[in-house]
């Protein structure tokens, strides 16, 4: 099995960069949908890809950092078997600045759950109806779960200055415009040796 971090970096460097340069990833939802497609269409796909799932807990979570976490909806969650192996937040505004502090804080809050609960349920609740799907499968955050922030903006910003505020296994995939030329790169803040 390939490492999910390596897979995301490879997808980011190509084909995401090329698709952006061709003008087909101008909005955040396009980027989210394209990442879903790329991950699901991998020949050796062994992951489930969740787009904006609601996080439920079998038992209430009592911790300052995780209080109210059930109301947060990550942009993408990647699971394998009964483990959550990656949580991704996305901000894309190629012709403007992005505010990323709230998304980084959300990733830290998700990380805090790893020490508390092995009974996470992922599900969907449509906003316009009383119907909801509440899966019966329970997940736990994998040790070394990847917390990834993806951004496309009009200028380079250095998220590594927030190093003390980042999750332990953190990946920032970013793209920005430099004199109308797309620059794509990554910042890897792995505090421990995760595989």
What would your notes on this structure say?
The protein is α+β, with helices and mostly antiparallel strands. The protein has a single domain (4-190), classed as 3-Layer(aba) Sandwich (Trna Endonuclease, Chain: A, domain 1). Helices cover 23% and strands 33% of the residues. It has helices at 4-21, 28-40, 101-113; strands at 48-51, 54-57, 76-80, 83-92, 120-124, 133-134, 140-153, 169-178, 181-190. The strands form two sheets. The protein has a six-stranded mixed β-sheet, with helices on both faces. The chain has a three-stranded antiparallel β-sheet with strand order 2-5-6, with no helix packed on it.
Name the average pLDDT: 81
Strand residue content: 25-35%
CATH fold descriptor = Trna Endonuclease, Chain: A, domain 1
**What distance lies between the first and last C-alpha atoms, to the nearest angstrom?**
10 Å
Which sheet architecture does the biggest sheet show? 6 strands, mixed
Named CATH architecture: 3-Layer(aba) Sandwich
**Class from helix and strand fractions:** alpha+beta
Rough outline: globular
Number of strands: 9
The whole-angstrom Rg is 17 Å
Key features?
195 residues; alpha+beta; Trna Endonuclease, Chain: A, domain 1; 6-stranded mixed beta sheet; 3-stranded antiparallel beta sheet; 3 helices
């Amino acid at each position: 099995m390939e490492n999910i971090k390596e897979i995301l970096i490879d997808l980011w460097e190509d084909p995401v960069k090329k698709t952006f340069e061709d003008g087909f990833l101008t909005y955040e939802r396009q980027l989210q949908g394209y990442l879903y497609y790329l991950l699901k269409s991998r020949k050796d796909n062994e992951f489930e890809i969740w787009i904006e799932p609601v996080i439920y807990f079998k038992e209430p979570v009592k911790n300052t950092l995780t209080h109210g976490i059930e109301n947060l909806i990550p942009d993408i969650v990647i699971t394998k078997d009964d483990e959550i192996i990656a949580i991704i937040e996305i901000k894309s505004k190629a012709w403007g600045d992005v505010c990323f502090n709230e998304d980084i804080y959300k990733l830290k809050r998700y990380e805090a759950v790893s020490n508390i609960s092995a009974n996470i349920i992922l599900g969907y609740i449509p906003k316009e109806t009383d119907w909801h799907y509440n899966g019966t499968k329970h997940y736990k955050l994998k040790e070394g779960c990847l917390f990834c922030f993806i951004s496309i903006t009009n200028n380079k910003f250095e998220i590594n200055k927030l190093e003390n505020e980042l999750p332990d296994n953190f990946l920032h995939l970013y793209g920005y415009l430099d004199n109308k030329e797309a620059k794509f790169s990554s910042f890897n803040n792995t505090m421990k040796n995760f595989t």
